[in-house]
Amino acid sequence: MRVFKFGGASVRNPESVRNVARIIRDHHGTSPLVVVLSAMGKTTNALEELCALFMSGDTPNMEKKYEEIRSFHMHIARGLFSDPGHPVFQVLEQTFYQLYYYITAPPGDNYNYEYDRIVSSGEMVSTRILSMYLNEVGMPNRLFPAQKLIITDASFRDARVDWVMSSRAIQEQLAWAFREDPGEDLPPLVITQGFIGGTPQGFTTTLGREGSDFTAAIIAWAMQAREVVIWKDVPGLLNADPKIMEQAVLLPNISYQEAIELAYYGATVIHPKTLKPLLNKKIPLKVKSFHDPEMPGSLIDHQEAHDNQIPSYIFKDNQVLVSIFPKDFSFIAEENLARLFADFARHGVKMNLMQNSAISFSACFDYDRIKTPALLRDLRKMFSVKYNKNLELITVRHYQRACMEKLTKDKEVVMEQKNRTTLQVIVRGNR
Ligand code: ASP
Ligand code: MG
Known about the structure:
alpha/beta; Carbamate kinase; VC0802-like; 8-stranded mixed β-sheet; 6-stranded antiparallel β-sheet; 13 helices; 23% strand; binds aspartic acid; binds magnesium ion
């Protein structure tokens, strides 16, 4: 079997939903397929706003937001189903009525619980629309609630997956779905929600923003899928952000490790949480364009042969560089380092680059309005501290000298560090 994941941008209006149906039809192949779907367009953001208005008791604005979300979905449904008497409209009215009924009662005091209860509606609605539309156009399918497949603990909003229970639930239910003959020539097709899980007691949870990729990976892992395809609005993985580097090129094939490294250095490729289960079972991950479904896109798998062929660039602005000196001119050795790291960890500040000499230690990290001053205050208790703001950190994997010189031309390089695969420079000035 295979797993396809479609994000919100792929189902943001009626035409794009039709395109998703075409992709499923043309790329289904001969084995069973599970489709993991996100909320439509920017619905998750809108539901987050709805939840905040609900919690703050701002009823007039909450009702406005609710109506906005409802009519956005109704508009998409009307664009897909020409018969106003189609059962989809009743299903949607019911789903929205449940949400409305929920938010007209006073909120409880557990924000994260309420969040999961409300924000999960986005995926519940999107999958109902897609499933019924596919039925309508001759692609019979089964819709499975993700709450019964992805079993989690009760850490609402950032739920932890119970891998043993989830794999059992996924295997049992999908095996059953795949065995049942839908009575058509097509191999079995299952639709489920990304981003959502459920506790064994039946409460709905969510896996953290952008969690749908992770859902696809969990299902693929449990089923030992042949591959996962993430359909996006870009041609695949690029070697740089095309908004910053016009000449960005496609990475046709990189290894799981390389993708994890790129994410670590700040590339918004695929989250390591998604990659780890796939890596453990050597399941290939493809990233393809839903605008250009025939193009090969990018492949992430265990092959490392191509990792070093194309340099990748990661730009992070808004960086702070601190240099820390022991007040008593003692060396920067284990005890001082232990204190320093404890300060960073306590304030939740992640170092993007560090360097030390005999009497100084420097670290570069993202500026944060709250965390940065608090960290500096604590560091000053024991150390002398100097710092610079508004810097940019450029990381190049598999660097070549020539392109680096072009990048730093006309810029003051404040610090540079390199090993065999990775070059990092801190330069002055935000982009
Ligand atoms: N709809 C959720 C979000 O926007 C999950 C996802 O799209 O991956 O964060
Ligand atoms: Mg999304």
